[in-house]
Amino acid sequence: MSGHSKWSTIKRKKGALDAKRSKVFSKIVKEIHVAVKEGGADAESNPKLRLAVQNAKSVNMPKDNIEKAISKADKEGDNLIEVTFEGYLPHGIAVFIECLTDNNLRSVSNVRAVFTKKEGTLGTNGSLSFLFERKGIFTINKGELDPEEFEFEIIDAGLEEFEEVEDKFIITTALEDFGNMQKQLDEMNVEIENAELQRIPNDTKVLKVETAEKVLRIIDAFEDIDDVQNVYHNMEMTDDLMRSIEEN
C-alpha cells in the first residue's frame, strides 16, 4: 500500500474519532463556497459542487448545514482566496500546505508561527513543487462491488492505481483524468465517499516511529489552523508507524 493512501486512511479514521467536528465542517463549507463561486449553485450541473456535497455527507454534515453553505456561497465565497505554503520540517520532511482564506496576512502569520516554533523552514512558493504531483484520489465504499469487475470498468477513465483498504477502494488518477473518472463513476451510479485532488510525493522518507510521530504532531499543528485545508508531506507512513497510530 502506498504512503499517500495510508495517510488518507488514517486521516479518515482520525476525523471520525477525534477531530473537532466544527473544524471539519468549516473546511467543507469553504469547499462548497468555492465550488458555487466557480460553477453555480446547482449540484446537478456543477461537478465540483456535487463532490463537495458528497464529501460533506461522508462526514455526516447535516443537510441543513449543506443547504445553508450553498445559499451563502455567493456572499461569503467571494472573499476566499487560495494560498499555498511550502517548506521543510525537522529531519528533512517536506510539507506542502493549502489554505482557503479571507485574510492572507493572518494565514501567513499563523503558518509561519508553526514553522518557527517547530524548528522548520518556510520556503518560497514553487521551491518544493517538484517533490509533489497532483493526483485525483477517490474513496469508494466496497459494498457489493466486485473488485476485479469494478477495476476493469474504470480503466479507460484514467485509472492509475487501484487499492483495497479495509472496506474501501482507493482509486488514483492523473490530474487531467480527475473529471473523466468522476463522470464514469457517476454513470455507473457508484457512490463516491470522498474525492479530491491531492499532492502525492514522488519519493518518501522513512523515519523511526518515535521521530515520525513527532513530525505528525507538527502536521497536526498546521491542520489545526482554521485557514488550512490540506497538509501534504513526503514522510513514509510505514506499517510500524501505522500500528503505533492505531494503538494510540
Description:
The protein is an alpha+beta fold and 248 residues long. It folds into three domains: 3-78, Arc Repressor Mutant, subunit A; 81-127 and 205-234, YebC, transcriptional regulation domain (Alpha-Beta Plaits); 131-201, Alpha-Beta Plaits (2-Layer Sandwich), CATH 3.30.70. 47% of the residues lie in helices and 24% in strands. It has helices at residues 3-17, 21-39, 47-58, 63-76, 104-117, 147-154, 178-187, 209-223, 239-247; strands at 81-89, 93-101, 121-122, 132-141, 159-165, 168-174, 192-201, 228-233. The strands form two sheets. The protein has a four-stranded antiparallel β-sheet. A hairpin with a 2-residue loop joins strand 5 (159-165) and strand 6. Helix 2 (21-39) packs antiparallel against helix 3, helix 2 (21-39) crosses helix 4 and helix 8 crosses helix 9 (239-247). The longest helix is centred in the first third of the chain and has 19 residues, at 21-39. The protein is globular, with a radius of gyration of 18 Å. The protein starts with a helix and ends with a helix. The model has no long low-confidence stretch (mean pLDDT 87).
